[in-house]
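TICKET: design request
STATUS: open
ATTACHED STRUCTURE:
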């Protein structure tokens, strides 16, 4: 069972070396790392040259910006059985790939796997994750998977492309990984979340700009889930939990600019997101 690890990168250098070193320490070694480099300089190419004879690395130079767009470029080069999307600042545990391999080897009915996250030297994670193992459903997607923790069988996403309207660098700045999970569930693939398995990722400070960008992605994602994937059962939870509750909190805490900005972004994303024109979101 071979892993294809698609990493789209921009403005990183030392973090990529840290990730590669975590690959060198893996107990399971049948993998390829596909790096899609959006930088104008040679910082990532130099890393590729330093490690290309040590591990299996495919290097692709991209002249276009956008996380989803460049992941799609990397997807075209995947030759593995299991596909994952590590961030350019995450780090695997020594047994990460082996744990995923064992799961898929013993669970033939499952199409995808996710895990928890936390900082390398702390307990804080960037996902408000569940603390118990669970089946992944449309109701817990937001708490059971973020892009760099998702591993999927290749055959489950043969008709999938990341929505290039979603994700960092796009109009709606988040939600591309949850879109992948919605796609997998819509196509009747089963997924399982592992609460006690971790992939390391630094916690980030949310700026006002990020709150707005991520909020737009959140609103766009839910519109797509309801109007494109036809998960109509999400209509009431979206407007009650994601809009109404946040509106009440904004009224109670009017000085929390990030909360108001995020709410504004969610409404923008929900109103202005449009269905993709490309025919890659076909489900059975």
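STATUS: resolved
RESOLUTION: sequence designed for all positions
ATTACHED SEQUENCE:
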């Amino acid at each position: 069972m071979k892993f294809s690890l698609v990493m789209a990168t921009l403005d990183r250098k030392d973090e990529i070396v840290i990730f590669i070193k975590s690959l060198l320490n893996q107990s399971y070694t049948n993998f390829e790392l596909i790096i899609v480099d959006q930088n104008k300089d040679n910082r990532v190419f130099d890393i590729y040259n330093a490690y290309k004879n040590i591990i299996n690395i495919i290097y692709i130079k991209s002249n276009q910006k956008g996380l989803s767009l460049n992941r799609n470029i990397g997807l075209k080069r995947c030759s593995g059985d299991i596909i994952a999307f590590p961030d350019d600042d995450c780090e695997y545990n020594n047994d990460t790939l082996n744990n995923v391999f064992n799961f898929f080897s013993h669970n033939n009915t499952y199409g995808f796997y996710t895990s928890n996250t936390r900082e390398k030297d702390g307990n804080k994670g960037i996902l408000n994750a569940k603390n118990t193992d669970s089946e992944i459903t449309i109701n817990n997607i937001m708490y059971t998977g973020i892009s760099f923790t998702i591993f999927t069988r290749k055959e489950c996403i043969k008709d999938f492309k990341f929505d290039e309207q979603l994700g960092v660098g796009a109009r709606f700045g988040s939600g591309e990984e949850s879109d992948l999970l919605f796609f997998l569930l819509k196509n009747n693939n089963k997924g399982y979340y592992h609460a006690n398995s971790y992939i390391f990722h630094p916690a980030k400070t949310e700026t006002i700009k990020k709150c707005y960008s991520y909020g737009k992605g959140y609103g766009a994602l839910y519109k797509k889930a309801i109007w494109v994937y036809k998960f109509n059962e999400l209509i009431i939870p979206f407007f009650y939990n994601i809009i109404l509750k946040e509106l009440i909190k904004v009224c109670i805490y009017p000085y929390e600019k990030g909360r108001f900005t995020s709410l504004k972004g969610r409404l923008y994303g929900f109103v202005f997101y449009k269905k993709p024109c490309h025919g890659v979101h076909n489900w059975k």
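CLOSING REMARK: The chain is about 40% helix and 15% strand. The mean pLDDT is 92.
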